[in-house]
Amino acid sequence: MSVTPLIRNFCIIAHIDHGKSTLADRLIQKGRLVEDRDFQDQILDTMDIERERGITIKSQAVTIPYTAKDGQAYELNLVDTPGHVDFTYEVSRAINSCEGALLLVDATQGVQAQTLSNLYLALEHNLEIVPVINKIDMAAADIPGVKQQIEKDLGLDASGVLLVSARQGTGVDDLFEAIIKRIPPPRGSSEAPLRALIFDCHYDPYRGVIVHIRIFDGRIRRGMKIRFMSKGAEYEVETLGVFKLALVEGTELTAGSVGYIIAGIKTVGDVRVGDTLTAAEHPCTAPLPGFREVKPVVFSSIYPLDSNDYEELKVSLEKLKLNDASLVYEKDASAALGFGFRCGFLGLLHLEVIQERLEREFGQSVIFTAPSVQYRVYLRTGETVFVDNPMEYPEEGLIEAVEEPYIRASIITPGTFLGNIMTLCMEKRGVQTNMTYLDEKRVELIYDMPLSEVLFDFYDRLKSISRGYASFDYDITNYKPTALVKLDILLNGKAVDALSQLVFRDRAYERARLVCERLRDEIPRQQFKIPIQGAMGSQIIARETVNALRKDVLAKCYGGDITRKRKLLEKQKEGKKRMKLVGDVELPQSAFLAVLKTKES
């Protein structure tokens, strides 16, 4: 098997906000991919939402040319990865296309929950790990302490740790040399049949689907016929090249290369992230192992604001799925909102990002229903069904038992905030299974808790009470019995299916009261009173009222007998009764968004 010595494929993995994007900026500047006058921070974060929130959402690839101290020219293919727990799937895709990883640790914060999680992900794929301590220029940097954590918590050799300041550019030259010496070159033969892994895609309105590939065997040229192995679709390569911030055209890509191809692909469904690309004339025998299967944990329905925009929304979701393989959706319908889609997300931040991307990138005005998890329902007939949509929840009399998904939550925090965090976890029905003092200052807490409890405000409250120092990571473990009820929201006596929620029985009253209060502030006043009720089956457990707009029918009475005024008021009362019988309540989009908000927001 031949070895390609001039290419190195690596990714940067770390906990959120440990400096991945800043380090990628310095590597790109050293590689002279962009003039200093054109440079901007977070240069690989191409979406406005990434810049606004200061987080990486999409993995981005870039090829950096580098000449080593011995004069040898190298091609370094870097994949920048997200750090938030919701985007672990993006990280797994990046890791699958690399031979090595720079494991970045913040010198002021040390090893965090996501650092451990991403390390295990990289070790599963047998990547060479290069530990790097970042932010060494900070006044609060504790380099000896962090080295000790890397050795003790991560099991890596602290003597091989590199020290860098991504902000100031300190230690970046040594990092380049370490990448070349410590990360192995890609293995694969350019003469073997073509096998390329599709690790990402994006849609260009003029050129169709642009496919991001990592070639493991063989070579790919312009004019070559290619085949997508999962669908069997065949296309001819029109253009190919590498990522150097912009798309730079080339003549061919060989084994070990990371690049893109354009083949005039207009049928979005033909391309699937994780699929294997091969030559149509001399195909390979077996596809490459794909990425791990995505498992959505949060479910919500999306509806267009105008029901005539349904087809546009469908096309937008298809294009968005190309760029975000973790998005799962199927058709859905609601009596209140018409036709839409039931979508699966990796977390609440993922849901918010999808909503903003639909609105910004595709110009879609959409309504999201309250998020839910997937429950396992045992029916009296002996049948077992999975329910994530309140509209599909069986009647109470048909249900034998219900189970909800639980997570194993790992929280790493300074000991100062231990009491407040334990109180928060108990409030969220968490059961502590382990507590480990990692060193004199840091504690790792392990909790078993229902996934539904961390959906809404857990992450925000954790950051708030720990002043941003606590880190959180979780894995879905199993299902456990729960007391679940369907909470219906009635407007003017009619249930609005899009506002229904599945909630834990003991929290039903609190949730119903909160939703009713939010809706009262959002629903515009009418000429008649609008009762807003929260109901559990036939039992009303909360109520708020939107008061009527009252026309002053007595304005023309400047005096005179009281009976004249009474007559006018009685006439108005009768009119309001008739109006209430036929009156429909219009729900603004803000009312649906208000239901998603938490008590503190």
List the main descriptive attributes of the protein structure presented here.
601 residues; Rossmann fold; alpha+beta; 33% strand; six-stranded mixed sheet; Elongation Factor Tu (Ef-tu), domain 3; Alpha-Beta Plaits; eight-stranded antiparallel sheet
How many beta-strand segments? 31
In the CATH scheme, the class of the largest domain would be: Alpha Beta
The description of the largest β-sheet is: 8 strands, antiparallel
The low-confidence runs, each spanning 5 or more residues with pLDDT under 50, are 1-5, 42-54
Number of domains: 5
User: Any idea what the CATH superfamily of the largest domain is called?
Assistant: P-loop containing nucleotide triphosphate hydrolases
SS element count, helices: 13
What is the mean pLDDT?
Answer: 78
Find the CATH topology of the largest domain. Answer: Rossmann fold
* Span between termini: 58 Å
> Hey, roughly how much beta strand do the residues contain?
25-35%
Indicate the CATH architecture of the largest domain.
Answer: 3-Layer(aba) Sandwich
Radius of gyration in whole Å, from Cα? 28 Å
Q: Summarize the amount of helix as a percent range.
A: 10-25%
Strand order of the largest sheet: 11-10-16-7-8-15-12-13
